[in-house]
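I am going through a labmate's work and have reached the protein record below. What it holds is a sequence and that sequence's fold in token form. Please read both lines and tell me whether the tokens look consistent with the sequence. Do not assume that whoever made the record got everything right. Thanks in advance; the entry in question is below.
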Amino acid sequence: MNYWLVKSEPFTFSWEKFVKENFASWDGVRSYPGRKNLRAMKTRDLVLFYHSMEGQDIAGIAKVTKEAYPDPTTDEDWSAVDLIPVKPLKNRVTLAQLRSEKQLSNIYLIRQPRLSVMPLTKQEFDKIIEMSEK
């Protein structure tokens, strides 16, 4: 199993809207590293859902239900995956909290904050879940 973090602006697509719709085609990613990461996602991989711009927090856990397929929003060579929400975090984990945790200093959200789809190690994923339970 692999672990990921995806970013969405809450005024465009929030965790609450995701839960209400119970599904998302994760499309519209227009960076080569993001496309590479989407194409590496496998069914049942776990994904942390991060609110970018406003909020700047991890709100919940999602799961990949369909691996990469051609992004339906373009005729160009981009990809999308399907996600479903699994559960909200007990407590949201803010960007400030992530930055203050030494064990998370190398995650892409800190090192390359413009990347919208990024891998996490199991240890990083588990640490974020642990932080949400405090």
